[in-house]
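Appendix B.2, paired examples.
Example (i):
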Amino acid sequence: MKSLKPYLKPLFIIGSVLIITVIISWFAFPGWRAQPGGLWLLIGVAAVGIAAIAKVTLDIAKTWKDLNEPAAQSQSEPKLRNQEQDVGGSKRVKQVGKKGATQRQKVRDSEDVTQEIS
């Protein structure tokens, strides 16, 4: 069974925002008080609104993270390119590549063939 501890802080924040929103709306808009069952209706509407705002905020944060993540990866670590070479009937053949990338070299009827990996 999972612990509820990681969920307590977000639930406390959402609950606090809900209570504050309901109290402010109850006093700022007297129409809620005039309607029968207005308090329960107000609580339901505020909960739906806060859930929608929370979802949009999380989606924006996720998109922002996804947009910034590839830029950070490309700056920190260059991507290794796979190289393939198919040569036939040449005098000199040389292929230079990086260590860790896939290197393939197929040579037919050629002289002086070298492959360097740095």
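Example (ii):
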Amino acid sequence: MWSTLPIRHLVRRLARIAPLDLKDRATRSWEIAPGEISIRPKAYFLPNQLERVTGWSRLAGTRVEQTRSVCGGEPVEHAATRGLLLHDAFLIDGVLYQEDACSHLQPRSHRWPQTRVEREIERGAVYCTPGGNRYFAQWLMDDCVTYALASAEGIPVTTNQAVGAHTPGYEEWLDMHPCRVQSAHFRELVIFEDFGQNRDKHARFRTLGEKLSSHVPVQPYPGVFIIRGQTGQSRLLTNEWEIAGRLRENRGFRILDPIKADVPSVVECCAGARVVVGVEGSGLIHGILLLPPGGAVLTLQPPGQFSAIYKDLTDRDHQHFGFVVGHPEGQGFRIDCGEVERTLDLLPS
């Protein structure tokens, strides 16, 4: 089977004709969970921390948006979760097509548009997102959460991209059986708007954590420090092991280096931790997924790339969020151990 849609969309792009949004081509849409409004709680941080910030992560919003988030006190609207039904849709090389609408779920793996369609699926449901296809944390906190919706609507579909080292282990323990697709035609395809941090998304995220913790013995303990090292985008905390060792010695923390651990070891280490500490980044999601209500996340922030993206999760899940901003040092940044401990003391016990 073949489809000319990729070529037609390339011609339209060269002609500077913008594609339609896929939701505009849906034959039916419905509300899965209602939206809601909540008041942001204030984050926990020492005086003058925000004055150290020299750059803001675009993934987490603008400087103004993130400042408002950590300062708290303002109402925030959480969008409803919705499903949308498409007929006669295609997923080819990471791009969803339906007539003159399209959505890129990941960058194409070929320079030129592919036209061959390898399989046909009667009814599928796409649960992956562009962010989840690029970042492990967004895969675990967004795509895996939407998987439950997809599996209830049809064959749960994701792109056929290379998976990370921990992906198979998490899929096994979370009972996920995705259909990885390079190219397919769908007679019916369900897509989702599932970006609102509403109560239903909270419940689905908590279900993932409960599934993981059911595999290991859980005993509450003070906290886990998650090592980032030099993985991912460069955020080198030059005294990372010094801080980790001090928290282990002074406060009974465990230390986890996810790169050196499989999923069972990661879950066993994180389950029961009341606080998750580490350099802001994807690695923290290992601990956050298992963090109980009332727990806390303390992020160690590089001054040039501040991100409060996890505060959306802690606000939603009745947890606490804190941060310490470092000082530039060489090719990385350094954080004062005393500031880390004083910030931990601010957190509710």
